[in-house]
Amino acid sequence: MPANIVVLPLLLLLELDLGSSQVLPPPCDSEIYCYGPLLHAVQMAKLYKDDKEFVDMGMSLPPENILKNFKDLSQAHNNNIPRDKLEAFVNASFRAKGQELEVWTPEDWKESPQVLKNISDPQLRTWAERLHQLWKKLGRKVKAEVISQPQLYSLIPSTHPFIVPGGRFLEFYYWDSYWIMEGLLLSEMPQTVKGMLQNFLDLVQLLGHIPNGARVYYKQRSQPPLLTLMMNSYFSYTKDLPFLRDNIEKLAMELNFWANNRNISVSAGNKNYTLNHYFVPYGQPRPESYSKDFELATTLQEGERETLYTELKAGAESGWDFSSRWFNGTSKPNSLISIRTSRLVPVDLNAFLCQAEALMSQFYTILGNSQQARKYQDLRAQRMEAMQALMWDQQKGAWFDYDLDKKQKNPEFYPTNLAPLWAGCFQDLKVVDQALKYLEDSQILTYRSGIPTSLRNSGEQWDLPNAWAPLQDLVIRGLAKSPTPRTQDVAFQLAQNWIRTNYDVYSRTSAMYEKYNILNGGQPGGGGEYEVQEGFGWTNGVALMLLDQYGDRLRSRAQALPSQPLCLAAVLLSTSLLSFLPW
What we know:
- There is one protein chain.
- By secondary structure, the chain is mainly alpha-helical.
- The protein has a domain at 31-99.
- The chain has 22 helices and 13 strands.
- The strands form five sheets. The chain has a three-stranded antiparallel sheet with strand order 1-2-3.
- Helix 10 (190-207) packs antiparallel against helix 11 (227-238).
- 48% of the residues are buried.
- The model is unreliable at 1-23 and 560-583 (pLDDT under 50).
């Protein structure tokens, strides 16, 4: 391990009680893209508006030559290189970002998939056609020179073409890709999905896990584990049994990474439970946000800085980078400096793993391996027992993140509090109706443009006033499982609200966005570390999913209540739901 890579102090690792099976993932070992004086000098000079730009630039020279030239330049200026000299050095040593990839048109793209034909509203149908066209705009393929000379790039080469999120995100990302794949399958593009899946499986084979995204500087951390669900979506569509059989062990390897590297033991009553949390045991600033992390750390005592870096990376691993969800809720409730991601046991992470364990049991049953099928059934049962004991609140009708420091549930609202419904990690469908009451009691149904990410406005992008497509999906599809018409009606209305927000913003801007501000009638979102990005892969995917599920009922514009039937209006009035309808 390179000397500059800092791992959490042993005492802190012991305090976290991670178990004897703890194994660290491979470090980010590039002295240019991951750590070292060159990275520090360039990022702290702020040559670019976005720190990600530099670490996405390919090299014009071999890395050893660049490092030698930088050392000589630094010594010539007594380790204080003038900005113009540093900029000239970078221009001579690196290529502009974005040159590792070429635009790629998916070969299985077709003009008019069935999902478009199922949409009744003509304006929404035209819009959906444009969303379907966006897959060609977001398609990318790694250039041959990157595959032959990977040492010159931060991009991790992949064999198969893929769909990127959009904007500053030039590479593919882990959890984004699940909702992208769902949209691609609705666009009848299974070969593109299979190639993207193979890229992820190759990363598991190479690294033992799937990194945050396809860059070497993301290797230290992962993202919410949805690989097994991706495989299930592809297999359900294609029934490609040989592909499942060939890759089942890689699916197991990825789940083993989470079991061995992200496990946490929690005591409640007289029993110990094992669940999972986000945890990245490496210090140093995130390379793609280096200057922000470094400057934030300077406000702390030197001995506290490495722990801050690990918590920032854990927040990035969660996909919620960043949110008051991870902050100290008492002393500095809205301050990133108080981030402590690893000290919370998240509902959604454990729901995703519960779902993955159920799917693995099904996969092994299909493949005729009853022993492995039972193993994953048992793992799922243990996880559900732990979630029931530590996270479920019968009175409120939802699950809550468990706070390891306070030894109690975090009572704040997040859409992920209902993730177990979406993931199928419950046994009684009456729980879904309890979730509806929880949404009513939390006043969530009063938001007309989408479900808020939290009810706290911290200035971070995973908080109020922003709403995100995957979180809409978690709630809507969870509620839609209810056998009760009233709960299903609310699921539809939430889908209507979100589709109308996406459509209205697209009508004004001709763009889809990664997030939306839902407090001003629906606008592109804001806050956080960078400007809101266009594209946008998972937003497109969720829109197509909702159009597929409710396309015969969704409308692009608010319409007056029909004269018949009056029963729905009466039901809505009687259940105090009228306030969130966009009439």
